User: Which sequence fits this backbone?
């Protein structure tokens, strides 16, 4: 080769291969220089690092694969330049193909550096290859050196970009950014670092993985959505714990935010596993060279995993502190509530104070029905409403646990009672009120019209619900203990039946949530009964004090007295037993919806009506009312025995003053002392006939003895008949 041709080649290469470009651009520039200097039709370059696939081409469109024969591969590896005259010297399908297209010359040259084959260079000619083509042997080392330097510079640039991206994550941790902010910074940095069309960060939750950060027009609007883990390429990454490269994203078999990924062509999904457990995924879509992006993406994903874990742990500590604060504050505020109904009222007020909410509702589970025990904010008017079984999200929460609804208007499970005039909007959290033995006491609902509730906020609601449930049970136990203690003291201290009954009526009204109570009884167990004590009523009840009530007349009173069992009537419109006249009058006067009746031993009955609209009677309330009625019966029995003792004492005193042999005076003293209507002394006038010789409350009479109580007395038996 002449020095002029070599000089021209070196000049062309030196101009084309100036530092600063990426390897592909430099390769095209160098190829253009060679084509121009050697009058070639086209040229292309393949690199060994990607399997001799095409890196760059000018003037022609060669296939992606090299299709070298073994002899060609061996010669190129040895550093030889191969020159072919086409078509007669074609050695394989590739060179034969160029000959068939009308080309007359092909040069294959190796790009070498000491001890290493970097790739292959090919030149295509329309005529026989010129002798100057042999000059390639002298300039190819320079071409390879410049190309290698470009690769090194590009690698340094990529590493610099990686360090800058990692620095952004480190700075986010040092600045105390939130978990979602770190995820957003990670998505943006990965998008820029790897030149992807879109990048996502999703975090694993119980139901799937939620998109928490995204960059790219097609995915940014989907932030916050949940997608299942058990489908598509994310399932593969979840199970294997290794990166998954998808050359083409399918447009079927996907759901959730996965559906928006199909137009982005390819995907590289990297599990985020800082401690061996997958906490989420980094997704890269629409990559220019997905395979080449793998190592860099894995390096970035490893640091992103650590950053997310760091923030997750920090936020978990802060979350636990907030939950403890809510729990302690709630227990303090609810601890002094006198009864469960007051706990419910305070709980909805606390929800507005301690949680990001605009209204709150507490529903108590009563005999398979949920009742709105208390409500605040826009829902204040629904207190007392009953939610039928299996209607609404509250029943779902009782079965499945806490439910978080991002948009109430779009969830078909939401139940809106007809009493609410306007449709509900916003986001809400529905969580059970858990009892100490795993049973559900009811439901707490909080809602707001602004941003959807986050999982962290939902856990705060759960903490408040836990405190509320504890307070409900404690208030119930305290109420039972307090009322029973007060009842025992009343029974021991009060001197008159009226004061005793009045005190127990007050206790019974408290037992059912501060409603009304009435006690119908006779202090000595006689008939008819009268109204001995009331609670929760006013002057309008005066007429009932003038009425006598006979349990033998039937109605609710008769049933309770005969059965000696509680009568629970949740809906007076369809009672299991029809009421009597006096009971009907009370229902009409007070508009009673539900009522509970219990027997007061053999003395009477007690009725109680709940203090909250729509309230059902809890089992503990029925038991408590029975026990209070038992204490009242015990107090009345002591009163009856005391009265009987006084009468006997007075009778003995009177009898001691009667002159001996005065039977008329004796019978009169006995009848008046015992407070009876009729008394007599008789004697036998025949074996089966007696004569009443002295009568109190009547005149002497003669009667047949058989079949009468007096017969047993005459026959030697101690028989007493009371009537």
Assistant:
């Amino acid at each position: 080769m002449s020095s002029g041709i070599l000089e021209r080649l070196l000049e062309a290469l030196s101009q084309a291969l100036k530092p600063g470009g990426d390897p592909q651009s430099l390769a095209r520039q160098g190829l253009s220089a060679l084509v121009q200097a050697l009058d070639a039709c086209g040229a292309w370059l393949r690199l060994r690092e990607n399997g001799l696939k095409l890196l760059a081409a000018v003037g022609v469109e060669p296939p992606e694969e090299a299709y070298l024969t073994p002899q060609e591969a061996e010669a190129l590896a040895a550093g030889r330049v191969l020159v072919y005259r086409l078509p007669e010297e074609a050695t394989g399908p590739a060179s034969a193909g160029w000959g068939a297209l009308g080309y007359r010359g092909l040069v294959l040259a190796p790009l070498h550096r000491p001890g290493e084959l970097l790739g292959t260079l090919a030149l295509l000619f329309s005529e026989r290859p010129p002798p100057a083509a042999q000059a390639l042997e002298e300039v190819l080392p320079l071409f390879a050196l410049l190309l290698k330097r470009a690769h090194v510079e590009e690698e340094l640039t990529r590493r610099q970009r990686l360090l800058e991206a990692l620095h952004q994550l480190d700075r986010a941790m040092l600045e105390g950014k939130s978990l979602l902010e770190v995820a957003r910074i990670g998505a943006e940095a990965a998008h820029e670092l790897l030149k992807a069309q879109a990048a996502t960060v999703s975090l694993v939750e119980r139901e799937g993985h939620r998109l928490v950060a995204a960059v790219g027009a097609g995915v940014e609007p989907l932030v916050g959505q949940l997608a299942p883990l058990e489908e598509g390429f994310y399932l593969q990454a979840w199970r294997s714990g290794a990166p998954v490269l998808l050359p083409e994203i399918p447009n079927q078999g996907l759901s959730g935010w996965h559906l928006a990924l199909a137009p982005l062509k390819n995907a590289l999904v990297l599990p985020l596993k800082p401690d061996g457990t997958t906490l989420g995924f980094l997704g890269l879509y629409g990559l220019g060279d997905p395979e080449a992006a793998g190592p860099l993406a894995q390096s970035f994903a490893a640091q992103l995993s650590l950053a997310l874990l760091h923030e997750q742990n920090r936020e978990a500590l802060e979350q636990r502190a907030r939950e403890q604060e809510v729990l302690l504050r709630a227990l303090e505020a609810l601890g002094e509530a006198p009864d469960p109904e007051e706990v419910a009222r305070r709980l909805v007020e606390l929800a507005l104070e301690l949680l990001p909410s605009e209204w709150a509702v507490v529903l108590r589970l009563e005999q398979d029905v949920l009742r709105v025990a208390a409500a605040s904010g826009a829902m204040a008017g629904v207190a007392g409403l009953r939610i039928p079984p299996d209607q609404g999200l509250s029943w779902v929460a009782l079965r499945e646990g806490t439910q978080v609804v991002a948009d109430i208007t779009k969830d078909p499970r939401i139940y809106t009672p007809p009493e609410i005039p306007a449709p509900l909007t916003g986001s809400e959290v529905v969580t059970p009120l858990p009892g100490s033995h795993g049973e559900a006491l009811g439901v707490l609902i909080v809602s707001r019209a602004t941003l959807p509730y986050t999982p962290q906020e939902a856990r705060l609601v759960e903490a408040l619900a836990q405190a509320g449930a504890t307070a409900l049970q404690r208030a119930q136990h305290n109420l039972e203990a307090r009322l029973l203690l007060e009842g025992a003291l009343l029974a021991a201290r009060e001197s008159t039946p009226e004061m005793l009954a009045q005190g127990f009526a007050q206790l019974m009204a408290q037992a059912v949530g501060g409603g009304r109570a009435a006690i119908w009884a006779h202090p000595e167990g006689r008939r008819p009964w009268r109204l001995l004590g009331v609670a929760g009523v006013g002057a309008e009840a005066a007429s009932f004090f003038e009425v006598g009530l006979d349990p033998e007349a039937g109605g609710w009173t008769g049933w309770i007295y005969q059965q000696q069992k509680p009568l629970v009537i949740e809906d007076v419109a369809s009672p299991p037993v029809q009421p009597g006249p006096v009971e009907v009058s009370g229902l009409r006067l007070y508009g009673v919806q539900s009522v509970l009746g219990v027997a007061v031993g053999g003395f009477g009955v007690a009725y109680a009506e709940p203090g909250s609209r729509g309230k059902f009677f809890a089992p503990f309330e029925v038991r408590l009312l029975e026990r209070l009625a038992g204490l009242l019966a015990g107090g009345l029995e002591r009163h009856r025995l005391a009265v009987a003792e006084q009468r006997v004492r007075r009778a003995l005193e009177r009898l001691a003053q009667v002159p001996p042999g005065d039977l008329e005076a004796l019978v009169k003293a006995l009848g008046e002392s015992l407070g009876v209507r009729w008394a007599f002394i008789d004697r036998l006038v025949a074996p089966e006939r007696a004569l009443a010789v002295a009568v109190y409350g009547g005149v002497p009479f003669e009667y047949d003895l058989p079949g009468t109580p007096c017969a047993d007395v005459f026959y030697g038996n101690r028989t007493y008949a009371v009537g």
